[in-house]
Amino acid sequence: MIEQNTSEVQTSYDCVADEYVRHIYDELRHKPLDRQLLDKFADNVRGTGLACDLGCGPGQVARYLYERGVVVCGVDLSLGMVERARQLNPGIDFHQGDMKALDVPDESWSGIAAFYAIVNLPPSEVAQASREMWRVLRPGGLLLLSFHIGDEVFHEENLWGCAVCLDFYLFRPEGVVGYLRAAGFEIHEIVERKPYAPEVEYQSRRAYIFARKQLVNLTTA
Question: How far apart are CA 41 and CA 141, in angstroms?
Fold first, then answer.
């Protein structure tokens, strides 16, 4: 399979932004474990500085954290998603950016919640994004990363009636853990769950990883 380029991903999400809001923005109210894990993340980063909803889409995770007292911003590759996020979530700053090369200084964020942010990244780019997340987190900063479990890659050219060109990657937890450890993260907890009902979400098993930035980057030590 030929890996898609970043501009194809960006353009696809720009095109599907309105439908994405309609289908996804309220999803957390149907996902109790997701809310529980985000509550845990919020309890750990509240009062420690700015956290980021990375790959924020229309900002539903950022809004959830904001309502729980977290100072939060959002970053997404798609300008269309960023515009919807700004409209839907006044009081939160949202910016366009590529998680593989963030326009953010070192050690800017106290936490990163990356809910399915790696779904369109091939493995080599997950490793790159892991290093970038390590770079922008403060020492001791917390990462909550979620993804679909599996080995498959799915190509989609139609999403909710919109023309797209997107590859969706599933990952094994041990593989993602390897990328994070190589970047310098310390793994604290791995949670897996079965999918919720078909009307709630795509029917894949899910993984959530809590990891902290170690004081020394293992790739350069």
Answer: 11
